[in-house]
Amino acid sequence: MKLARSFRAVPALGSGLLVMLADTDAGNVVTAAQAGAQWGYRLLPLLLLLTPVLYVVQELTVRLGIATRRGYGELVREHFGKGAAWLAAGSLIVATIGSLITELTAIAGIGELYGLSRVVTLPLSVAVLMAVVATGSYRRAERVTLWIGACSLAFLAVAWLAHPDPAVMLRHAVDIPVRDKSFLYLASALIGAVFNPWMIFYQQAAVVEKGLSDEQYRAERRDTAIGAVLTQLLTGAVLIAMAATVSSSGMPRTLTSVGEISLTLADVLGNPHVAPLFSVGVIGAAMVAAVVASLALAWGLGEVTGYRRSLEMHPFSARWFYGVYAACIAGCAAVVWYVPNLVWLNIAAQALNALLLPIVIGFLVTLAVKALPAPYRLRRSSLCLLVPVCMVVCVAGLVGVIAGII
């Protein structure tokens, strides 16, 4: 009996882990690196505290997907109308474009670090991203993307090579400059890096696409929990590596691109293997995020407009779905090609996500109350805890962005 249940749970594995690996994208890496370089370990407690909140938010998409068999955009349209659905879709479009430009800028920057022009790296990246969805199956696309995402585990090795000091970690954990505007801005950018609109759209759509059943609910929850812990560990590893090297060395603390971060780490540590290791991690993370964000946009717009959307369909049967996926990747690659100096967008895109957070999480929590059937409905005690926590996170993100701008 237990063996049979285990086999039934296998299809559930993957989407939760994949969306979390995508969360450790290039913008996330640059934001975490800047936080570590400028403020040492002081923002590490925030990352750790956000782990359970990230799990709870993404777990709601699992509940909604399995219980209703509908995507996030479709549910928003059904319960709040077309205007609200387009508001949610608008946040998805903005977040996806910002993320894609960030990922492709990072890939181009890594290529140039090793003498490869973006004339080579950008078309190659677009070709790989298109090949992933040409597998003709969601499960195959998911497996390929997970293997690419495994490259981001290199961040853990980089943090280990940096030899962080536990005593300094503890000292920084209680030395929080809450009145410093640049600290608050980076804190809000980290919040925006952790919670991304396309993550919510993607995981719920993936659950529906895979046709997960009630029996696979627990397995998908475990997958999501493991992914939430892993992505925060990877982001924390980047912050730790920079805090242990740049922050404690007295070097310049403004690092805006993955190329700068990679070379700085290698220089401070005196280890020639660090730069390639970090570069591999960034490329893996950026490629996974590009796939997930683009699929989220293609699914999300389909949920709002009603066009056919599935990786199981032939491109001629789902022209709009594949067309949106291809257009957003090719369009953002063209922007990066013709406007090379976009490194400023790395942290700005994460801060923008913090501003969009109340929209997507607000709809998500409301859907959890209105759309879930009794077996999946949150207990009153869980709801009473969830709502204030989500409000605190959203307000903290907004306050940090506003304080940093003023």
From TrEMBL:
Domain of life of the organism encoding this protein: Bacteria
Localisation per UniProt entry: Membrane
Classification of source organism: Bacteria, Pseudomonadati, Pseudomonadota, Betaproteobacteria, Burkholderiales
Metal-binding is among the record's keywords: no
GO molecular function, one term: manganese ion transmembrane transporter activity
Name of this chain's protein: Divalent metal cation transporter
UniProt membrane topology term: Multi-pass membrane protein
Coiled-coil parts of chain: none
Pfam families membership: Nramp (PF01566)
GO biological process: iron ion transmembrane transport
